[in-house]
Amino acid sequence: MKKILFTLLGVLTTVIATAQTPSILRYYLNDGTTIDVKISELNQIQRIAKSGLDNIFNNGQTAISVPFDEIDSIVFVTDNNVNRNTNPRAQRLEYPRLKEGSDQLLVIHSTALYGITFSLEWDCSKRSQRWTCYQFHNGIPDNNVGRNESWKVDPNIPSAYQTSGADYSGTDYTNRKLTRGHMCMSNDRQSSEEQNRQTFYYSNMQPQYSNHNSGLWQTLENKVNDWGNNSSFRDTLYVVKAATIDKADQRLASTNTGLIVPKYFYMAILCVKNGQYKAIGFWTEHTNTKLSDLPSKKPKDYAVSIRELEERTGIDFFCNLPDDIEETVESSYSLSAWGIN
Question: How many domains does one find in the chain?
Answer without folding.
Answer: 2
